[in-house]
Amino acid sequence: MKQITMLEYFEKITGEKTEYWKNNNDIKKKLSSVERKNNECNRKRKTVTRPLDYKQRMIQEVKNGKTKLQVAEEFNLSYNSVKKITRGIPSQRVVPTKIRQEIIQEIKKGKTKKQASKKFGLSYYMTRKITEDIKSQYLSPISVELQEKIRERVKNGEDAHQVSKKMGVSYNKVKGITRDIPSTVQLKRIKLNKLRSKIRREVKNGKLKKQVAEEHGIPFHQVQKITKDIRTIRSLPVEIQRRIREEVKKGKNKRQVSRELQISYDSVRKYTMDIPGCAKQNKLQDDIISKIRDHVRKNKSKTDAAKKFGIAWPTVAKYTKDIDTRYCISKDVIKKIRKEVEGGKSVRSVAKDNNIGYGTVYNHVDDIIHSAKNKIVLRGKTAELFQKLMKDGYALITCDDTDRFMALKKYFPSICRVRYDHKTIIFLEDKSNVAAKAFLESMNSRIISYKKLAQIMKLFNKSPKRYAKTSNL
Length: 473
Hints:
Layout: H1 6-14, H2 24-42, H3 52-64, H4 68-74, H5 79-85, H6 97-109, H7 113-120, H8 124-130, H9 136-139, H10 144-156, H11 160-167, H12 171-177, H13 184-205, H14 209-216, H15 220-226, H16 238-250, H17 254-261, H18 265-271, H19 286-297, H20 302-309, H21 313-319, H22 331-343, H23 347-353, H24 358-364, H25 366-371, H26 380-392, E1 394-397, H27 402-411, E2 415-420, E3 423-428, H28 432-442, H29 450-459, H30 467-472
Antiparallel strand pairs: 1-3, 2-3
């Protein structure tokens, strides 16, 4: 036997040149992968040989009328193996003549195809094929009496959907039985076509479209469709025209007249165009004008006056143009406002306390705010927070107080802040011990672990020793 080297053996199997393969380890790796592939290809597939009698029994069962799935379940085999064995036999099930006759008799009695298919264990399509030659009168399970009732109801004007729900019959069957009878929708269309010319004539003569719709029992949108091209100009009776003119001459507003007589504003305007002073807005009476002016002088807004007297805001503004509402505040109130702002209160809180607008308060206190910009001036809640800090040395704050803390930090950089477990506290540098105790008390926990306490103490720049737990609690 000739001895073959590793490189020659590699060339023989792979068919590749060995110039690039110098190291034996690389060749061994490549050989192992190639041999594995060859072994997989040469490996024989496992085939199970079944006896001929066993196969013939299966074929006979399929020929008798059983499905391949049933045969697979009986013989404990997969569906694919049964399919291979019975490849030449057609998959369609052959139904015996006795069962066919029984199915036809059941359907003639009045049963549906689905009921027959369930009874005999056949598919719906098989029963449908068997009963193809039967006439359609035998196929419907509805009796003749029931059919007559359905036809009568549809003739009377009932909808096919309503009849199907009441009689317990499908909509398609009701529609098939009453095919020759015109439906309610068709009848309505026929009625509309007959009345079309009459409706158009009535609308042209001056009748309202709503009245026409009510008289003929037709929906308003259909009347509107028929008379789309007709331009309706309603001519009111002479008596109503006179009444409109009289009401307007007395001094009533046109909108009030239109509401009282239930006539559109445009028609009222049309019949009162020639009356002098009616084309424009009517003037208000002198009594009402004086009342409006008095109301505005009492430091009340123009909108309140408009709501009270039922007049539009522009008309109120027109008759109160010379009254300057901005300087209606008394001198005593102005002095009081200025003192409160100088004391430290904010402009917004002063406006709320005295029921005066923010803008008016700001106008009267503008010089105080501008002069205090270079000085350290704390007002409102920031001043309260600072007082608490100076008194106790600490203060527990919420998310809303962050802006106030930042304002204090500008002027007093020695103020510190600590956040832990969704709680915040601000304190002075000298009062860190007192702040730490107050923070631990606010936690509301009876037992605190040493690890947790150490973390809190580190935030307050304190050493977390063993004795600190007893001393701080």
